[in-house]
Design goal:
CATH topology of the largest domain: Rossmann fold
Order of helices and strands: EEEEEEHEEEHEHEEHEHEHEHEHEHEE
Mean pLDDT: 93
Shape: globular
Structural class: alpha/beta
CATH superfamily of the largest domain: Vaccinia Virus protein VP39
CATH class of the largest domain: Alpha Beta
CATH architecture of the largest domain: 3-Layer(aba) Sandwich
Number of helices: 9
Radius of gyration: 24 Å
Length: 412
């Protein structure tokens, strides 16, 4: 007798469970209708079919799918390059209070689950799409919040949101940054109007002291995303010579010297202000480090000619792939710089190489690094591949939020 057929597989989503379509004439409040089905938080102009006449820039709108069924809610700005940022999916109501709830969820992750305040007073509080708060990044540095805003809707709500964050985090001041291009695209006027007069603040990370300069620093002032990678490097460098190429304000270099007890550390960067800040950070920790103000490409070529090599080389350049129009050029820069850096690693030494370009996948970056090694007639033992710390979560429906890639390899 043949076996009975297996029972049907139960799923949590059925087509019949979807709410019925709602024609435009029966929709209440501002709304936007999609042309294509997508769970990505960023909706671009060619993905939008229609919008209500009362949908104004910065508003919280209801989102309908291509069939006219309730799909979610988001912040709308018709003039922006990303006109719709979806914050919630489904047909349940979603209000301004729910947006504040998203801030609370982000704080709970850092404080209750990750216990970050016990380890450092510098960490990411809100990681944009990774925290379902597209267009907003917030770092805490002691009593100061450093905010990066990419959305008019977010900017309009920042006065209320900052009060809420200050109350929850016990911070007192904030620095708000909006890239001039984004301010122009989004229609954000007076982007600095929400900032307090703060020049710098001192922080501590795993026992290492840093000064974060908001007036001269990049992005939100400091790269919290490398925190766990800096600590890991420190476990590998005791008694060794370390080169930190593109050292910025000395994060890896100081971790190697202060935490890792490296014998000798050299930091190289083209940014004169960053090198000045790195020297101040070294003084804060009473650490002797050689700082070199020069272009990394030029320095590496000169060290090649001098036949200089280090036990450990860290390469953490700024973003070299800036747009989809520059993919080939950006990949070539990564390859050239990695080839040069690899040539400075002593046989059997450690090579730690990074990319913060979101447009470069982890697979593509690994391919570039391996090819760079082989072209230098070297081989790599890849020990691990890491990324940003857990305070930079990756949303499953936004994989490009995995922007930071770090390859740890032994050079043979």
């Amino acid at each position: 007798m043949p076996d009975a057929p297996p029972p049907p597989i139960e799923t949590s989503f059925k087509l019949d469970d979807r709410p019925p379509p709602i024609p435009p004439s029966e929709r209440t409040g501002p709304w936007v209708q999609l042309k294509y089905f997508s769970f990505h938080p960023c909706i671009y102009p060619n993905m939008i079919r229609d919008q209500s006449r009362d949908a104004k820039a910065g508003q919280l709108v209801q989102v309908f799918d291509r069939d006219g069924r309730p799909f979610g809610h988001g912040l709308f700005n018709p003039r922006a390059r990303v006109p719709l940022r979806v914050y919630a999916h489904g047909d349940e109501p979603f209000t301004e209070q729910d947006l504040l709830g998203r801030l609370d969820q982000a704080i709970e992750l850092r404080q209750r689950w990750l216990s970050l305040p016990e380890q450092t007073d510098a960490y990411r509080v809100v990681h944009s799409d990774g925290d379902n708060l597209s267009g907003l990044a917030v770092d805490q540095y002691g009593d100061t919040l450093s905010v990066e805003c990419h959305s008019l809707g977010v900017f309009q709500r920042l006065p209320e949101w900052l009060l809420h964050l200050h109350r929850r985090l016990q911070t007192r001041k904030a620095i708000v940054n909006v890239d001039p291009k984004i301010a122009r695209w989004e229609g954000i006027a007076q982007p600095g109007s929400l900032s307090d007069p703060v020049e710098s603040v001192r922080i501590r990370e795993h026992g290492v002291r840093y000064e974060v300069n908001f007036e001269e620093g990049h992005k939100t002032g400091f790269f919290c995303d490398q925190r766990e990678n800096r600590r890991r490097l420190a476990t590998l460098v005791e008694g060794r010579r370390v080169l930190d190429l593109c050292c910025y304000t000395g994060g890896f270099a100081l971790a190697a010297k202060v935490l890792g007890k490296a014998e000798e550390v050299t930091g190289v960067d083209l940014d004169e202000k960053a090198i000045t800040q790195a020297r101040r950070n070294a003084n804060l920790n009473q650490a002797r480090i050689t700082w070199v103000h020069v272009d990394a490409f030029s320095y590496a070529r000169q060290m090649q000619r001098n036949q200089q090599q280090w036990d450990v080389v860290v390469l953490d350049p700024p973003k070299l792939l800036l747009s989809r129009d520059e993919v080939a050029e950006g990949r070539k820069k990564y390859e050239d710089l990695n080839q040069l850096a690899l040539s400075l690693v002593a046989p059997g030494g450690l090579f730690v190489t990074c990319s913060c370009s979101g447009l470069l996948s982890a697979e593509a970056f690994e391919e570039i690094v391996i090819r760079s090694a082989h072209r230098r007639k070297r081989r790599l033992q890849i020990l691990d591949q890491t990324g940003a710390g857990p305070d930079h979560p990756i949303l499953s429906n936004c994989p490009e939020s995995r922007y930071l890639k770090v390859i740890w390899g032994r050079v043979l």
